[in-house]
UniProtKB/TrEMBL annotation:
Heme c 1 binds at C126, C129, H130, M265. Pathway: Energy metabolism; oxidative phosphorylation. Its cofactor is heme c. One of its GO terms (cellular component) is plasma membrane. It comes from Neoroseomonas lacus. Residues 113-202, 207-288 form the Cytochrome c domain. This is Cbb3-type cytochrome c oxidase subunit. C-type cytochrome. Part of the cbb3-type cytochrome c oxidase complex. Keywords: Cell inner membrane, Cell membrane, Electron transport, Heme, Hydrogen ion transport, Ion transport, Iron, Membrane, Metal-binding, Oxidoreductase, Repeat, Respiratory chain, Transmembrane, Transmembrane helix, Transport. Its main location: membrane. One of its GO terms (biological process) is proton transmembrane transport.
Amino acid sequence: MTADQRHGAEIDPATGYETTGHDWNGIRELNTPFPRIVIWALALTFLYSMIAWILLPAWPIGRDFTRGVLGLDQRQIAMQGYAALERGRDDWMAPFAAGNLDALAADPALMARAMPAAQRLFADNCAACHGTHGTGGPGFPDLTDANWLWGGSPDTIAETLRVGINSGHPDTRVSQMPAFGRDGMLSREAVQAVTDYVLALPGSAADAQSAGAQVFAENCVACHGENGNGGLGTGAPSLVGARWIYGGDRAKVLATIHGGRQGVMPSWAGRLSAAEINLLAVYVARLGANNQHAEAP
């Protein structure tokens, strides 16, 4: 027996390890020992898992789970953190619960603290429909212009947020554009005529003696006003501004008059606290005010 053979096993002269006896086109496969560091890592991992199973929440048992010796509950920890955040903003949030919103909006120091939180509140609850900056979208009003369906003061906005529009709240604001064409209230010719009249309103080019003007006077003035400026309290939008809720080209205006519209905003009472609703109302009112200041000559 040579020095390269021990107990009948072939020894690789370069590494000193035994071979498996397999030969791959002249390359012998080594029987390399399993690294001890890996064995120790596996052992430590197993030991840690055993300790974690005992100390931490780990095992599901039906609809519940074991709490572990430490009794940790991530839900409880998260709620405690949320409660701590709530306590941290009580000092500036409390005045919004039942305060004079105009007076609160006129307090620069309070607004500096409140508006970042209001912006996050708007992003979480309102931006999906009204857009990140409140500029609206198809079917959702622009909150930055001067035209409001029920009024743009903070108190009025807060009431709209509280009860919603065409919502399930008992005091909801109600607004609906009738389907004049679909329901047969106007003929096809009358719908087309009043469509042309409405499209001419923003540029003051509307012919007051036209057939469309007569249809408008008989069917639309009660909600939208004689000049199409809209009606506060009825939810009827202005027809003379540059921005339209459902689109201002002829096809979309025709579709609105023919098929009607009925937008919906949920009631936020019960979803948000009174203070949060008032905070949002001040924020939304400032969106419009800031935009009007920016557009002023």
